[in-house]
Design goal:
Elements lengths: L9 E6 L8 E4 L3 E7 L4 E5 L7 E10 L2 E6 L5 E3 L2 E3 L1 E4 L4 E4 L5 E7 L9 H14 L4 H17 L4 H34 L1 H17 L3 H27 L2 H10 L3 E12 L7 E2 L17 E2 L9 E10 L4 E4 L1 H4 L15 E11 L7 E8 L6 E5 L21 E6 L4 H6 L3 H10 L4 H10 L6 E10 L4 E3 L11 E3 L5 E9 L5 E6 H8 L5
Antiparallel strand pairs: 1-2, 1-11, 3-4, 3-5, 5-6, 6-9, 7-8, 7-10, 10-11, 12-15, 12-17, 13-14, 15-16, 16-19, 17-18, 18-19, 20-21, 20-23, 21-22, 22-25, 23-24, 24-25
Helix pairs in contact: 1-2, 2-3, 5-9
């Protein structure tokens, strides 16, 4: 392919793809119609040129300061991958005519720009095509290679041809390696498809349960009725016994609100699964409502979220909670089936102490293999309060116990925060999972609930009691009337008379002395 003859003060369309590939269309008139004829060939027709049957897709106008493109009514034109109706053209712009039409590059020749075909020009055109075209990767690579080869063979310089062929060989090897690596990573990801689907399902569920402005409006309406009555009922229970009031007062500062986030990580590369974004920058969603996730996504890390309760253990420098709070993915069996491809990991794990405005960062110290227990530690152990003591003996059936924790997580604390706080938060728009907790703590509203119950049964593996609690209260202390921990709240049995289960403190002692700790 030979270069076009130099023409002063003109523009030329270098056709990169389509049936025109390798040809040039000169634009030397004040107005040139760009037409796709019935054979799919792109034609540049000035006034007086013989017209052919086809569709006019654009007009290029010569103006004082350059050239201007105007799309024909109903036509679809992209310039540098952006769909346009009218735009000023600049040196090197890549234009795509219609959805499946040809791709061309504009070259403007004047006193500053002269026609000189070079290796950089050819490779630059190929790179622009690869970057600009919206076709699949393999098709883009094939067309770019063909375009580069045909232009290189048209050059009269033997050395130039050899240089281009060598470059093409390097590019082919590089592209092949990237393709093989991409396929290998894709196969790994597909091997963990069940894990990805499970995480996407957890995210979709979290999205449904997220706090929205409408939820806050409804909450404001209910604060004065049902939720306020619940708080009053709990206050009444606490007032029924002086011992109970004393225990709640002494234990409250040691009951920790836990927040965690977790995602999936590619073991080999360390990449986290992220949300895939569309052209508009919004997250892509499948028709079933689940988000599209990929390690190559440009959005935020895909993070499922969980809340729970823990309590500080006196003299040990640790916080006791449930294993299913510290490693929440273990409750979802699908997240375990990823082979060696993906692994669930904590992205963030923090705790809030009652009456303190700032969160503390936490890490897992030990997980029990025999009970639903975990030990977690803060970055700064000195930030912990004195803590609670473990009881020396198990309670007996009929004995009263107090359960403390954060049932229903953030919503229960919002219910007790008052209408003004909820209204201010709603107006601020800061209703995200982490933001709500920050505001509650800053306002001094991070306090656990307590409920009274009767021990119904004792076994080696569990303590059964009827104190009211629900999800979010997992990991909270079950206290006797001396303020000692007799069990760690772990499970709810709604179909069994509202009974709940706790792990006996003997299992906590086992975990504290475990060699693997």
């Amino acid at each position: 392919m030979s270069a076009p003859t130099q023409h002063p003060d003109a523009a030329v369309l270098e056709h990169l793809t389509g049936r025109n590939r390798g040809l040039y269309s000169w634009i030397t008139s004040d107005a040139v119609d760009i037409m796709l004829d019935d054979d799919g060939i792109l034609r540049a027709l000035a006034a007086g040129d013989i017209r052919v049957s086809g569709q006019v897709v654009a007009r290029i106008l010569r103006q004082k300061n350059g050239f201007h493109l105007v799309a024909a009514p109903g036509a679809r034109i992209w310039v540098n991958r952006q769909q346009v109706e009218a735009v000023d053209l600049s040196q090197g712009d890549v234009i795509e005519f219609e959805e499946h039409g040809p791709l061309s590059r504009i070259r403007i020749y004047d006193a500053q720009h002269h026609r000189q075909i070079s290796l950089n020009d050819i490779l630059g055109d190929a790179a622009s095509y690869l970057r600009t075209s919206r076709r699949p990767l393999l098709r883009r690579l094939s067309r770019a290679a063909g375009m580069t080869l045909s232009r290189a063979l048209g050059s009269p310089s033997i050395l130039f041809r050899i240089g281009v062929l060598i470059t093409l060989g390097v590019l082919a090897v590089s592209a092949g390696w990237q393709y093989v690596s991409g396929r290998a990573l894709q196969e790994q990801i597909e091997g963990g498809r069940l894990q990805v689907d499970a995480l996407a399902s957890a995210l979709e569920k979290a999205q449904r349960e997220a706090i929205r402005p409408g939820d806050l409006n409804a909450l404001q309406d209910e604060i004065g009725v049902r939720l306020r009555l619940n708080a009053e009922r709990i206050d009444t229970l606490e007032d029924q016994s002086t011992a109970g009031t004393r225990v709640v007062s002494l234990a409250t500062g040691s009951v920790v609100f836990l927040q965690g986030g977790y995602g999936l990580r590619v073991r080999e590369t360390g990449q986290m699964l992220r949300h895939v974004l569309g052209r508009d920058g919004n997250r892509l969603i499948y028709p079933n409502g689940q988000p599209v996730l990929s390690p190559d996504g440009e959005g935020p890390v895909a993070e499922a979220q969980v809340t729970g309760t823990g309590f500080v253990l006196r003299g040990a420098g640790v916080i006791v909670t449930n294993r299913h709070v510290a490693a929440p993915w273990e409750q979802n069996s699908a997240l375990q089936f990823g082979g060696d491809t993906l692994e669930p990991v904590l992205t963030r794990f923090i705790g809030y102490m009652p009456g303190r405005p700032d969160a503390i960062n936490l890490s897992i110290l030990a997980l029990s293999d025999t009970a639903d227990l975990a030990l977690v530690v803060p970055t700064d152990v000195s930030s912990l309060p004195d803590g609670l003591d473990l009881a020396g003996t198990l309670p007996v059936p009929g004995q009263e116990v107090l359960v403390m924790g954060y049932p229903t997580g953030l919503m229960s604390m919002l219910a007790r925060s008052g209408e003004q706080f909820v209204e201010e938060m709603r107006l601020s728009g800061r209703t995200g999972f982490w933001e709500v907790a920050e505001q509650l703590a800053a306002a001094g509203l991070m306090w656990p609930l307590s409920s009274r119950g009767i021990v119904g049964q004792i076994t080696q593996a569990s303590v059964v009691y009827d104190a009211e609690t629900t999800h979010g209260g997992s990991g909270g202390p079950v206290l006797n009337l001396q303020g000692q921990v007799v069990a760690v709240n772990t499970a709810i049995l709604p179909d069994f008379g509202g009974s709940n289960l706790g792990v006996p403190v003997a299992e906590v002692r086992v975990l504290l002395t475990a060699p693997s700790r």
